[in-house]
Design a protein that fits this description.
Two copies of one chain form a homodimer. Chain A contains nine helices and ten strands. The first copy, chain A, has a four-stranded antiparallel beta sheet with strand order 2-6-4-5. Chain A has a three-stranded antiparallel beta sheet with strand order 1-7-3. In chain A, strand 9 and strand 10 form a beta hairpin. The interface between A and B is large, with 40 and 40 residues. The structure holds a DNA duplex (30 and 30 nucleotides).
DNA sequence: ACGCTTCCGTGCGTTAGCGTACAAAGTGCC
DNA sequence: GGCACTTTGTACGCTAACGCACGGAAGCGT
């Protein structure tokens, strides 16, 4: 039963007309991503773009001194490696696997060719890029104006939206890294949420109990 | 002498091959922008894209409660209204004129047609969009990790890069609005810079005296 | 059962930036 | 010159988040 791993679980691939998809299909290579994998190293040349199906990837912006911040999250609704078709083969950001799972990748040249043929794929990718821009803007303003509590809620929801279950495998340390804050800060905020009965976590395993409760706490972002 | 107002002062237009440019030229409409003008209201439908020549435009992300943050700055090197050709006719961000000057605008439909003809303009716009993404990422990480002092330096330099002179017309109040911080905070930071002899300002008129000094203080962003 | 490592809790003092309030200085208008 | 308005300076208490340091607890291997 390979249906469990259909590339068309990715929404962009699913939105392609059948013939276009058949065209691309031979170039799709399945990869299993494990937590912490780095798909794109900041500044390095990229060879593939990735279409996540049941995995989640975080886009981080890393600075010279090692500090970093998550600028966007990509799941089955998107694609990792935008800059390949946007022009310029490097990005200033790093892409880290935030939730283990599967993705399908295609060679950079293939996606470029498809993109510049100006078919339906192009429109899809452009619209997704636009959505990504929006997400980044939200992140920026949220970083500026909202409390860590709210940002944590937002982060949990962003992840939850891209997950089939309500369980995240993720230590507080890692979350802190993504958000660009202290680990202790996450401990504290997560403690509040746990006390409020919204989540329960245990050694790198976070279960969301009350999604609506989280939504009530989160900012509009 | 209309050379002072040549659309090709905009770098994107300047990079077009002559025939492509001649194609577009009849649709270019000159507009004079004054400080504080709003080119794009968050959520509203856009009718034009703008190519600034000697004006500067700030892209702000505004929230429901009125708080806002600048997410990018656009000058002669770019274009305002990306989402028109990226798909989706609205943006979540607002575009405010930060420095008065001239820009050339074209109707949304025209730029779309040109874009989807997949000529040289398309590549230029895509690459610029990629650059914008990078700028936004930098802004996000800078918001998170750097002091107001550094952010102010960065902001001054970003503006300076897009200006023919070393004088900015901009009150501290407005800067604070852009950066999404308190006015008093800007007063304080600006005071430090003034004491250090890097800038001098006076009632909405900031003169940069020592650009290298600013660069020494700013973060890598 | 033992030790090791990872993960989480907690408790300091410190600091950057916020909110508020008000004073001073420059500008323009009559 | 007088008056209203804008812009900038300053002060004070407050809070969120930081940096650091430690202690405990859960899991893992042997």
């Amino acid at each position: 039963m390979t249906l469990q791993h259909d590339p068309r679980q990715n929404h962009l691939l699913a939105a392609l007309p059948r013939d276009e998809y058949e065209n691309l299909a031979p170039h799709l290579e399945r990869v299993d991503l494990t937590l912490g994998d780095s798909l794109v190293e900041s500044g390095k040349v990229m060879r593939h773009v990735y279409f996540p199906t049941d995995s989640i990837v975080s886009l981080l912006c890393v600075m010279e001194d090692g500090d970093s911040t998550e600028i966007a999250v990509v799941g089955a609704e998107g694609i990792v490696g935008i800059s390949l078709f946007m022009g310029g083969e490097t990005t200033p950001s790093r892409a880290i696997v935030q939730s283990a799972g599967t993705a399908y990748r295609v060679k950079g040249q293939v996606i470029k060719d498809e993109f510049y043929r100006a078919g339906p794929l192009q429109g899809l990718l452009l619209r997704y890029t636009q959505a990504l821009l929006t997400q980044m803007a939200q992140t920026a303003v949220c970083n500026r104006h909202h409390s860590l509590d709210q940002q944590l809620c937002r982060w949990l929801l962003l992840s939850l939206d891209r997950l089939p279950t309500n369980e995240l495998i993720m230590t507080q340390e890692l979350i802190a890294n993504m958000l660009g804050v202290r680990r202790e800060g996450v401990t504290e905020s997560a403690g509040k949420l746990q006390k409020a009965g919204l989540i329960s976590y245990h050694r790198g395993r976070i279960t969301v109990l009350d999604r609506l409760g989280l939504e009530a706490r989160v900012c509009e972002c």
